[in-house]
Amino acid sequence: MDRTDLLKRIRRDGLGIVDGFLPLGARADLEGVIRDGRHEVDSDAYLMFVSIRALLRNDGMASCDSDREAGQIMALLNA
Question: Distance between alpha carbon 28 and the CA centroid of its chain, in Å?
């Protein structure tokens, strides 16, 4: 799936992406960061990022590449 198609899919069904690809433990990780209090976190953005990253990895993208691509996609969503 290319970036343009993925952006369209996220804009059309972002909650479906999160529901379908959110990794186990992601909500617990988020709660830990929030509870720690040293970082300000947009919970929705975090959950979307880790879900996009998981989707990309599921499609066979390498870990470091999926992190970078998920970050770029999030930037485009927020532009």
Answer: 15
